[in-house]
Amino acid sequence: xxxxxxxxxxxxxxxxxxxxxxxxxxxxxxxxxxxxxxxxxxxxxxxxxxxxxxxxxxxxxxxxxxxxxxxxxxxxxxxxxxxxxxxxxxxxxxxxxxxxxxxxxxxxxxxxxxxxxxxxxxxxxxxxxxxxxxxxxxxxxxxxxxxxxxxxxxxxxxxxxxxxxxxxxxxxxxxxxxxxxxxxxxxxxxxxxxxxxxxxxxxxxxxxxxxxxxxxxxxxxxxxxxxxxxxxxxxxxxxxxxxxxxxxxxxxxxxxxxxxxxxxxxxxxxxxxxxxxxxxxxxxxxxxxxxxxxxxxxxxxxxxxxxxxxxxxxxxxxxxxxxxxxxxxxxxxxxxxxxxxxxxxxxxxxxxxxxxxxxxxxxxxxxxxxx
Length: 371
Known about the structure:
The chain is built from twelve helices and twelve strands. It is an alpha/beta fold.
């Protein structure tokens, strides 16, 4: 065990494949394929195959992926889009980018994903879509959500930023809705060496529109047909992601093994709530989220022992200052508010050793018992 256990360790992840990454860098430099280009196109093909979808469109971030997904569905001013109370701010900010109104729904108390039982009551004649966030690396209840969406003729956009390789049955996240947005922020299960994202879809008409909108709305050089944006994927990131995608399955298995070890070591404690995994699904544990009381004190004591944990997320969506226009208050979404006060993200990454997991678990149990 090292003297300090970081929450995330990217150096150890990259070290075994550094030669491949350096070669990819040199190839892009020698070709000057910096913006979009052949390395991005190759990654798009490989990632679409990985997800099991027809097309993937590389962009510059997961936020851009969400934004373009909604625009491709015609979402705009006067529309409403349902989203969960527990997610990263980008999910809901992207709705606001389109001019649509976010409509917030509470989360399931076990999976922390959007609660299908509360979606129906949030639907109005203005509702156009549901954004489903596969939070922490686990798929939401897509069977129930799909049934609701179909009965109301609503679009489903998956926010799969934390769910690369997660699945229900034989269907991967990213291939369950009408479109899906992925983030490749460096700390994701599949992370770029910078910023990047992608949209995945089986609808070829939307593919072509999104490809155009990410490049200033062009249909051919200089023919600006759609309202467009500078959302192209960087050629270097396409090359790096193409290398790293080959290792994603192995890295996911390592995360799942770490999560299993945590559960075995911590499951006898009645002062901690461990992650729940739905039957017939694969949870890829982007985050190993536990709930505890007296979180701040526990985090302080863990840090004093050299263990760096995280919080995802300390403030639910409806209580952020920049969401004040939604007119929500404390108490509106009690499950999300409870999770935001009690959640701790334990270190989890493919290079985390069994010795370190034991040390983290032993110290957490000791601190919990002491409290």
